[in-house]
Design a protein that fits this description.
Layout: E1 10-20, E2 27-33, E3 55-58, H1 59-67, H2 70-75, E4 79-83, H3 91-103, E5 107-112, H4 122-126, E6 130-134, H5 140-147, H6 152-165, E7 169-175, H7 183-194, E8 199-206, H8 212-218, H9 232-244
Parallel strand pairs: 2-4, 4-5, 5-6, 6-7, 7-8
Antiparallel strand pairs: 1-2, 1-3
């Protein structure tokens, strides 16, 4: 009888970085996976939209890299965040990395739009301590305009599944003047978040143009080149709308 040899699980990794207080609690090892089904107008990392922009890597090799920071991450009350791109476009790889990090005793976070939430099986979510859920818009038509390829319904479905499981959620909302700032759209996002009992906070992220050089390097036009970042008055209004729904805003 011959032993069955299981091929190593591999993924496409764009890059990794160490962040503090941005991609989950504490100091984080953030792995940016390559490939995303959305083409958001405000995307600041177009170089992560296709898997070919990344490099092949096995779970073992990525975990070996994470182990170099293991003690530091634990002392800094941090952990590991899988971001992108869209990590749920590589569900088997994402699941195994999160599972191995959990075995190491590291806090784990999944940064996702939720569009591919149906690809996240229970084993993947069992190994996920926190979900950073990027709700692009609350109005279906606006959602489609923002993402060009996405739909709101799968994100809402995934969000409720997380809440039913008791998974902590940090909602992220990118505020773009003239695109996502309509009061009705903001209220719709706030209503979705307020209906989820495990939402711990909402992060209102002001649009910026820092990714413009990446578009230029790829020979692509930056869709929002003429859009200015939101001013403080608009930020206060939008944050206030979320707070009116009883949500904690950062």
């Amino acid at each position: 009888m011959t032993d069955v040899v299981t091929a190593p699980v591999t993924g496409s990794l764009h890059s990794f970085d160490i962040s503090i207080g941005v991609d989950g609690p504490g100091t984080r090892f953030v792995a940016f996976l390559a490939g995303c089904p959305l083409r958001c107008l405000y995307c600041h990392s177009p170089d992560t939209q296709y898997r070919r922009y990344g490099r092949p890597i096995s779970v073992d090799d990525l975990v070996t890299e994470i182990r170099r920071y293991e003690r530091f991450l634990k002392v800094a009350h941090g952990g590991v965040t899988l971001s992108g791109g869209e990590p749920l476009q590589q569900p088997a790889f994402t699941r195994e990395v999160l599972r191995r990090c959990t075995e190491m005793g590291l806090h784990t976070a999944l940064d996702t739009s939720g569009l591919l939430g149906d690809r996240a099986d229970d084993a993947l979510l069992d190994a996920t301590d926190l979900v950073l859920l990027d709700i692009k818009s609350g109005d279906p038509a606006t959602y489609r305009t923002v993402t060009r390829t996405g739909r709101l319904t799968p994100t809402v479905r995934f969000a409720h599944r997380l809440a039913e499981r008791g998974t902590p959620i940090w909602v992220r909302f990118v505020l773009v003047p003239g695109l996502t700032d309509d009061p009705g759209n903001v209220d719709a996002v706030a209503s979705i978040a307020a209906d989820l009992p495990t939402v711990e906070r909402v992060e209102v992220l002001p649009f910026h143009r820092l990714g413009a050089q990446k578009y230029a390097a790829l020979g692509l036009p930056f869709p929002l080149a003429g859009t200015v970042p939101p001013d403080e008055a608009l930020l206060r209004r939008v944050r206030g709308q979320f707070e009116e729904h009883g949500l904690t805003v950062y």
